[in-house]
Design brief:
Strand content: 15-25%
Shape: elongated
Number of strands: 3
Order of helices and strands: HEHEEH
Largest sheet: 3 strands, mixed
Number of helices: 3
Strand order of the largest sheet: 1-2-3
Helix content: 40-55%
Distance between the termini: 77 Å
Radius of gyration: 22 Å
């Protein structure tokens, strides 16, 4: 009986030392620029900025537009996976936000 308890104790100790799985987050936002929905792109910008504020180092985000045509790779506005160093990740977030803001400012309704 004693070897079983010893084996269970060792198994618990080893499992407690095992590295935990990463808990990275990925967000993919789609902005509808077709017709009258283009009037709502400012709200999409606010949502994007909120999402950026919640993401941590090593998380990923992408923003793409949808119009009346089919979706392709060229419709991706911006995408990023943030560095594991917080200072670098903050710089990446600022650049990402700037890129999205530029898109929003130039956005026009799709035919």
């Amino acid at each position: 009986m004693r070897p079983r308890w010893l084996l269970c104790g060792v198994a618990l100790a080893v499992s407690a030392c095992a590295p935990s799985a990463p808990h990275n987050t990925g967000i993919y936002l789609l902005v509808d620029t077709s017709g009258s929905y283009n009037r709502q792109v400012r709200q999409a910008e606010h949502i994007t900025l909120y999402a950026l504020s919640r993401l941590q180092s090593a998380d990923s985000i992408a923003v793409a537009r949808i119009d009346t045509g089919s979706f392709t790779e060229k419709d991706i506005i911006a995408k990023a996976t943030f560095d594991d160093r917080p200072s670098t990740a903050n710089q990446q977030k600022r650049a990402f936000a700037s890129h999205v803001e530029k898109f929003i400012d130039q956005s026009s309704p799709a035919p």
